[in-house]
Amino acid sequence: MLFALALAAGSGAASIAQGLDEAATGNLPLKHVEDVPLPGRASRFDYESYDPGRHLLFIAHLGDSEVIVFDTLASRVVASIPGISAVHGVLAVPELSRVFASATGTNEVVAIDEHTLRITARTPGGIYPDGMAYAPDARRLFVSDETGKTETVIDVPGNRRIATIPLDGEVGNSQYDPVTRHIFVNVQTRRQLAEIDPATNTVVSRTDLPGAKGNHGLLIVPESRIALIACEDNDRLLVLDMRAMKIVGAFDVGGAPDVLAFDPALRMAYVAGEAGVVSMFSVGAPGVRKIGDGRVGPNAHVVTVDAQTHRSWFPLKDVDGRPVLRIMAPR
Fold first, then answer.
1. Confidence band, pLDDT 50/70/90 cuts, at residue 285
2. Could you say which DSSP state residue 310 is in?
3. 141-154 per-position pLDDT tens digit
4. Is residue 11 one of the residues assigned to a domain?
5. Where residue 286 falls among pLDDT bands split at 50, 70, 90?
6. Sign of the dihedral through C-alpha 10, 282, 240, 253
7. If pLDDT is split at 50, 70 and 90, which confidence band does 12 have?
8. Which end of the chain is more exposed for a tag (fewer CB within 10 A), N or C?
9. H helical segments located in 250-331
10. Gene3D superfamilies given for it (predicted)?
11. Rounded alpha-carbon distances, angstroms, from residue 110 to 82, 107, 120, 130, 240
12. 8 Å CB contact between 88 and 106
């Protein structure tokens, strides 16, 4: 049974002491730390990405067409970067001091300098650019073109599109695997996972995903050689053995699962869903084990975890009529 969790008062005026939409963590090992107000309207958020070296969290505020920059040490918003139309994906690449954002409203990928927090380039991103993955050896950015049924490849040093890879189905999230040095992409209408070689920009394999329906979210845990695949149309999490490339497990999760995150120190995976329910899993040597489910907040479909502090961040579009960043921590 879910139980209401008392909200912890923040250390300053930036924190919200209480709200109508409180977290109810159920059997999750989480506590609610604080809610920090975010700028703009109570409108949809999409992906977020964290640069741990700079302690900066980049949040795509889709409804306001801007990227919000949050300082996790100071626990405050330090900038808003406007002019990124209907921004969906956001990806920080710390070694480049650059952040990429997919502007679905203008079908572009926007490059942002982390030092100045200013836009430095715009590159064509396909028909509906969404999630992104970076292949460091090839220095190429791979962009999920969701409705265009392709993967757009961008040469990062030159800020230019160099390839469009047909995937023959609606495209979900893309992830880089540091073991194979390949890009893996959900092809959700084909219920497949496509593998792309960044050196040649070609699809080298396709893996059928039995039990998948709307396989959109994707998380690769390289040290365990597994991939976690969130299926938004049947509320399932699939576990893929990346050595055998076979499904070895499946779990029920909260409604319409979307974004996944992993805490490598605690070996815990988070699955955030549109229904506001977060499901958590232990990822260890014996395999994947479900910890439980809990309601984190309305439309809590985006999550990022700090591997050092183990805090998790959930941008929520509407808590008492305003957007907030809900911060959780292990208890």
1. confident
2. -
3. 999 999 999 999 99
4. no
5. confident
6. negative
7. very low
8. N
9. none
10. YVTN repeat-like/Quinoprotein amine dehydrogenase
11. 11, 10, 8, 12, 32
12. no
The CATH number that applies at residue 114 is 2.130.10.10
The total number of structural domains that make up the chain: 1
What gap in Å lies between CA 87 and CA 101, rounded to an integer?
Answer: 7
204 versus 15: the higher-pLDDT residue is: 204
User: Does 4 map to a domain?
Assistant: no
Indicate the DSSP class of residue 214: S
Count of residues for the chain? 331
Return d(Cα 157, Cα 324) in angstroms, integer: 35
Query: 231: how many CB neighbours lie within 10 A of its CB?
Result: 25
Which residue's entry shows tokens 């265009």?
A: 148
Residue 21 pLDDT: 62
| Cα maximum dimension of the chain | 54
How many angstroms separate the CA atoms of 1 and 7, rounded?
Answer: 19
Residue 12 lies in a domain: no
Phi/psi class of residue 62: alpha, beta or left (left: φ > 0; alpha: ψ in -120 to 50)?
alpha
What's the whole-model pTM score?
Answer: 0.93
Cβ–Cβ < 8 Å for 204, 182: yes
Residue of 155, 227, 234 lying closest to 186 (CA atoms): 227
Distance between CA atoms of 16 and 10, rounded to whole angstroms?
7
Secondary structure (DSSP) of 132-171: EEEETTTTEEEEEETTTTEEEEEETTTTEEEEEEE-SS-E
Residue 127 lies in a domain: yes
Quote the tokens at residue 98: 């650059």
User: Are the beta carbons of 283 and 269 closer than 8 angstroms?
Assistant: yes
Please count the CA atoms within 13 angstroms of the CA of 242 that sit on its side-chain side: 24
CB 112 within 8 A of CB 83: no
